[in-house]
Amino acid sequence: MVLHSMSTLLRSGDLPSISGAVSTALERSDDAPFWQQKTLPYCEAILSVLLPLRNEKLLFTPEGIPQEELTVELFLRWCDLMSLKTLAFTLSKSNDAGKLLRTKIDAADAARYRPIDLEKLGSYLSGYSVNLSDEWVDFPITNYNLHLGITSLISKILKGEH
Predict the structure, then answer these.
(1) Phi and psi at residue 156, in whole multiples of 5°?
(2) What's the whole-model pTM score?
(3) Where are the alpha helices (DSSP H) in 13-55?
(4) Which residues lie below 8 Å from residue 48, measured CB to CB, with a gap of 6+?
(5) pLDDT single digits (tens) 90-104
(6) How far is 137 from 153, CA to CA, in rounded Å?
(7) Do residues 126 and 134 touch, judged by C-beta distance below 8 A?
């Protein structure tokens, strides 16, 4: 039941609906409050960019491969901190160019891209020492490892394992 509703929410829900469902699942989980407090902001940062891409039918994988819909699996692929950092730079460059760059999406479709507000994602990433000026500057491995734990909890919630 949870998987079905999370899948449905990712395909067509808005940010408040999805966040509410994740928040409710976190409240019901037996995971430590530390993990619960880290998870919702991460989900919201990711969704702040994936939902506009979904709505414009311009979703893609971390490898740039076009995707038809926002699935649990695709969301989890973007939960990797390195992938999310790359997405932030891809969208920033796309915002500047006025078209979606660095993907395998058809050029005519990529030209339909409308700039996405990166404030929530940027704020989240900078809070974890991700350099938003230079894509090639690494971030602390401890922050990557922390996000592996957060992703594990997100995965349990989205797959209905709670």
Answers:
(1) -60, -40
(2) 0.93
(3) 15-28, 33-55
(4) 15, 117, 120, 121
(5) 999 999 999 999 999
(6) 27
(7) no
